[in-house]
Amino acid sequence: MGDVVEPDVADWRFVEGGRLLPEVVVSAVGYTSRLDHPVLHRGLPSPALTLVLTFDEPVISGFTPEEAFGRDAHTTHLVLGGLHTRPVFIAQPQLQSGIQLAVRPLALRRLFGVPAGELSERAVDARDVLGAGVERLWERLGESAGWAERFEVLAGFLRDGMTEVRREPRPEVTEAWKWIARHRGTGSMAALAEHVHLGERQLSAVFKAEFGLSPKAASRLMRFEHARQRIALAVREGDRPDLSRTAQACGYYDHSHLVRDFQQYAGESPRRWIGAELRNIQAGAGQRAEDFQA
């Protein structure tokens, strides 16, 4: 596991857990926020599943701002979210801390014995999938002395949870995901089908059964993730993002197609997303897009 890095941010603190079991986890980030007032945060889709364990206030979320602040909000200290293609709205309290993991979709069977497709487009209480063990993990994390110890406890939990998979994904499905990641979502579906030696219709069926998304939807999501991170990097470096250049570099037909994807995945334009999430972006939240291949 790498060194713990703690950026010095006035009201936000993100702590990277280093290379925490990289074969199953893209990123592990500890966070603490102290805000003047509650805010609405958008959880954007990404090519990874999300596991969040909070230490004080629970995560309160919904698929619309009204749902997040209303009676139908999903409230839990332990959240497991599947691949999704629309933003999740989180009613963020003034004080919150916890750990967020980005879990590789292909690793979910090895960790928890279920395919990623079972969690598609929804978030659940992690105990419903992971059992009582995750609640004991949560208690131990809350009792730990600091971030370094928390990440060690978490790494141990993940290593202990690794099991022999009774039913591996079809090799064509595994290779299709890796091919999409290598091409950063820009390859054609005909080329993908030819690469894995399946017809496009058959590939779509077996791929969707495993991930809950079609290969085309996964490709769009992967392409969007690279564009989003390119924009975020420019903001962190103090530059004004060039959306036309970003669209070209990430394989979009033109600038308007990039904006269209932001409207779907973020619910707003790139400029408005930057304005709303500027504090998070500057603090370095997120995971590295190049790591989604494994």
From TrEMBL:
Tell me the superkingdom of the source: Bacteria
HTH araC/xylS-type domain ranges (all copies): 174-276
Q: Name the UniProt key words of this record, in alphabetical order.
A: DNA-binding, Transcription, Transcription regulation
Q: Which organism is it from?
A: Saccharopolyspora halophila
Report what the protein is called.
Answer: Helix-turn-helix domain-containing protein
Q: Which InterPro entries match?
A: AraC_XylS_family_regulators (IPR050204), HTH_AraC (IPR018060)
Taxonomic classification = Bacteria, Bacillati, Actinomycetota, Actinomycetes, Pseudonocardiales
Q: PROSITE patterns this protein is in? A: HTH_ARAC_FAMILY_2
Q: Which PANTHER family match?
A: BLL1074 PROTEIN, HTH-TYPE TRANSCRIPTIONAL ACTIVATOR RHAS-RELATED
